[in-house]
Structure formats: C-alpha cells, structure tokens
Automatic annotation (TrEMBL):
GO cellular component, one term: plasma membrane
Topology in the lipid bilayer: Multi-pass membrane protein
Keyword Transit peptide applies: no
Keywords: Cell membrane, Membrane, Transmembrane, Transmembrane helix
InterPro entries: TM_pro_TauE-like, TSUP/Inactive_protease-like
Membership in a protein family: Belongs to the 4-toluene sulfonate uptake permease (TSUP) (TC 2.A.102) family.
Subcellular location: Cell membrane; Membrane
Protein name: Probable membrane transporter protein
Regions that span the bilayer: 40-60, 72-92, 98-120, 181-198, 204-225, 232-250, 262-281
The organism's place on the tree of life at top rank: Bacteria
Keyword Transmembrane: yes
C-alpha cells in the first residue's frame, strides 16, 4: 500500500512539473520504477499506459486554457507515434541486463540536457509567431517518440526545448501542444509494448496509481503554466534525473564502482545541482526585476499629453 501511495504522489508531482514545464512525467516516473527494480521494458510500458489517461486529461485542460496549437500537435504527434511504436518494439527485444544501463544512459543524457539548457540559457523569446515547418517538426517528432519509448520518457525533454529554441512558438503554447500531442505517442508506445512483451512485468495497480496522481495534477498544471518559472523547474527536475541515473549506472555491471567513488560522485552531483538551482533562481529574479521598470516606463505618458 505504501508503494502505491508513493507512486501516486510521484505521478502527481511528475505531472505537475510536466504540465507546467512540458517535460519530465515519463523520465521521472520511469526513473523511480527502475530504482525499485522494475524491468526496463515493463517500466516504460507502465508509464506509457498511465500516460494515455494523464495526457488526455492534460491535453483537454491545456486546450481549455488556450495553450494548444493544433497544427503543431498534428505535425509532430503523428511522426512521434511512429517513432514511439518503433522504440517500444526495439526495447522489448533487449535483455534486461542490457536494457537497464542503456536506459539509464539515455535518461542521464536527457537529465544533463534539461539541467544545462534551462540553467544556462533559460527560455529564448525571439522570432515568436513565425511558422513551424513540417520539415522541422516531423523529424523532431520521430526522434522524440523513439527516445521516449526506449528511455521511458523523452518526448518533452526532446520536443519542448527544440521548439522553444526555435523561438517561434510562445512557451505556454509550446508546453500545451507537446503535452497534447503526447497522447498519440503514449497510445502508440503502449501498443508496441503490448505486442512486444504482453503484460509481463506490468502491474495494473501501479498503472492506476500513476494515473490517479497524474489526473489530479493535470488541470492544475495547465493553469500554473502561466505562473511558474520554467527556468527554475527545469534546473530542479534535471538535477533529480541526473542524480538518480548516475546512481543506477555506478551500481550497474557496466561500472560497479566502489562505495568511496560512488559517494564522491554523489557529492559532486549534489553540489552542481544546488549551484544550478541557485543560479536559476537568481537569474529569474534578475529578469523579473529588470522587466518591471521597463513595463513601468511604458505606462508613463510621453509627448504633448505628458507636458500638460
């Protein structure tokens, strides 16, 4: 029972971050399932089955709040579904001993990317409202879908920063469109896992626990997306993912590091993570402080009307 409650809380927290940041539900949930010894394919299958419900509710909520660009959803979602199905089939045919470290490498890379991207660069704001071309979105969706099903997450970490980096779609619509299109990816990945492993290792109660937590958080996250600082959330989530998967790799047969080495690496990761979050908070406050005087100046009358 305690494990189910924990899974529900993880689903709630992961969806709260995912819905407001456009990433991290799959990566966070899969990381936890791997940490408690779940088979990699079964972990990814469990998360994607839960995501069918959470992404549906999240998509509806984002749509109601005006956070969805339906052209982007279709252009990236359909090829994303193709990539997700292929990735699920690929992962289902790997042995557990091979898949576990491989998945951790993928998750670690995504965590490092999230941590670095949001800590150093924040969110780009130029070139807004320029059209996003199909030749850009289709390959992006294909790659993101494949990474998502093989890594147990990655649709958001790959898709959201790429679209944000283009500067052509405002952050809230980027996040809403990625979250909504993820429904197609979750359905395709789940079908791939069902054909590949059937129900082996997938526990319905775990799926339901993750689903319940995610459904509760989805509408809240869609509302919070306009309020929470994505830069700080990105640094925080990236650090969690990096730390957890570094731990998995250091304990794997690939490395099997002795205790002193592991603890030294953990301390280093904690230090970098704390510094990244602190830097992101300071940068967010600095940006907010510099924005307010500018907005105030814009409200001061100028010209003949101001001299009267």
């Amino acid at each position: 029972m305690r494990k189910l409650v924990l899974l529900a809380l993880v689903g709630l927290g992961a969806q709260l971050v995912d819905g407001s940041l456009g990433m991290a539900y799959g990566v966070t949930s899969t990381t936890l399932l791997l940490a408690i010894g779940t088979n990699p394919a079964a972990a990814s299958a469990t998360v994607h089955l839960a995501e069918i419900g959470t992404t549906l509710v999240s998509g509806v909520a984002h749509w109601r709040f005006g956070n969805v660009d339906w052209k982007v959803v279709l252009k990236i979602g359909v090829p994303g579904a193709v990539g997700a199905f292929a990735g699920a089939t690929f992962l289902s045919n790997l042995s557990t001993s091979t898949a576990a470290p491989l998945m951790s490498v993928i998750l670690l890379a995504l965590g490092v990317y999230i941590l670095t991207r949001f800590t150093v660069a924040g969110l780009p704001k130029d070139q807004l409202r320029k059209p996003l071309r199909k030749r850009f979105l289709s390959p992006l969706g294909l790659v993101a879908g494949f990474v998502d099903s093989t890594g147990g997450g990655g649709w958001g970490p790959v898709g959201t920063p790429a679209i944000l980096a283009s500067g052509r779609l405002e952050p809230r619509k980027t996040i809403g469109s990625i979250d909504t299109s993820e429904f197609l990816v979750a359905v395709a990945a789940s079908l791939g896992f069902i054909l590949g492993i059937g129900g082996e290792g997938v526990q319905a109660t775990w799926v339901i626990a993750l689903l319940v937590g995610g459904i509760i958080a989805a509408p809240i996250a869609a509302w919070l997306v306009r309020l929470l600082p994505p830069r700080v959330l990105g640094s925080a989530v990236g650090g969690v993912i990096v730390l957890t998967n570094v731990r998995t790799l250091l304990r794997s047969d690939w490395i099997d590091a002795p205790d002193p080495v592991r603890y030294a690496v953990y301390v280093a990761v904690y230090a970098v993570w704390a510094a990244a979050v602190t830097y992101s908070i300071r940068q967010h406050r600095a940006e907010s402080t510099t924005a307010r005087p500018t907005e105030a100046r814009d409200l001061i009358p100028t010209g003949a009307g101001a001299r009267r």
